[in-house]
Amino acid sequence: MFERAAWPRVLPFAAYLTFIAIADLLDWLGVSAGQLRWLYPFKIAVVLALLLAFRRHYDELGPPFLNRGAAAKAVAAGIVVLLLWINLNADWMKVGTSAGFDPARDGKIDWLLVTVRLAGAALVVPVMEELFWRSYLMRWLESAHFQQVAPARLGWKPFVVTVVLFGFEHNLWLAGIVAGAVYSLLYMRSGSLWPPVLAHGVTNGLLGVWIISTGNWTYW
């Protein structure tokens, strides 16, 4: 079903989803949120370990890196997505409910957990998700030999399919669709995976700062 080159891009994402399923199952079985607090750091550690183990397979994350202009555009795109993310929150823009992640225990915030959560969301998740959604799935939908597909050659079908799926991966589905569209356009127009990785990291990092400063833990 997959080319050998697909697995380094699929397995970290699959591991991430597996931990989400495990957390949902444990919650259904009555395990308290307090007992599940350290599942996220373990999840991020596993995903990071897989990314590092497969790092030699990620040609799309090699040079050339971003120049100042491309980096500035990516940062601006990440900020725009953040502003839309925290405002596209009407009831009809949501699917299901999000328990979020409240790092407070006995009225005190566990700053170690907050730091791990923020670092994971800003540094690990963007790399893992962009490798799967943009570098792999978008190109695979264009051709089974996905590594031969240049981002600029991607058509509307892979764009629409991945954007919609990316959106419904999130509780805020409309915000997710908008984010997926922005990251995909950055990828297609730049021909590089670095702009969507940077934009995604900026969105997640600033969202984390906003969550911490406002206490809107459900966004995590």
Automatic annotation (TrEMBL):
Keyword Transferase recorded: no
GO molecular function, one term: endopeptidase activity
GO biological process: CAAX-box protein maturation; proteolysis
Key words, A-Z: Hydrolase, Membrane, Protease, Transmembrane, Transmembrane helix
Stretches of the chain forming a coiled coil according to its record: none
InterPro entries: Prenyl_protease-related, Rce1/LyrA-like_dom
Alphabetized Pfam families for the sequence: Rce1-like
CAAX prenyl protease 2/Lysostaphin resistance protein A-like domain sequence ranges: 115-205
TM helices/strands, residue ranges: 6-26, 38-58, 70-88, 109-128, 159-186, 193-212
NCBIfam families assigned: pepcterm_CAAX (TIGR03008)
Protein name: CAAX prenyl protease-related protein
Species of the source: Rugamonas fusca
